[in-house]
Amino acid sequence: MKISSVNIVLIGITAIFLFIIRGQTVEHKNASTDEMFLKITDDSAGVPHESGIQWLQFVRASERLISENEIRITAYKETIEEAGPKAMVLYRKKVEQLEQQNIDLRIKLETMKKTERSNRDEFKLIFNRELNRLTKKIDETIPRNG
Fold this sequence. Notes:
Elements: H1 5-38, H2 50-83, H3 85-113, H4 120-141
């Protein structure tokens, strides 16, 4: 089934809209992350520990990648729905699995943000490995330009 240019434009507008909405949500989450970050300071000088700065950078980068994955998955789901029943049968289950894995990573990150910082380095290694693996699966399943 052929996708018309109107549908492609609609998908693009939807993706942009989701990206804007998601950016606002991430900015709101970053505000709460910044508040938590402020608690990770040297008590005597009120200066953030280097590990706190690195943790904040890791959280923001991870949230951004998860949001980008979410936008791509949502746009692709709309594309396969419009392509017809054959495409739905071929790709729906795989895309739903990718979507659930992305949600699971978001939950893991949110949970870790609320816990003590004792095992952050180990968490970052495992989490980065899982996020990179998921992003690679998404790249293999979902074309970047469509």
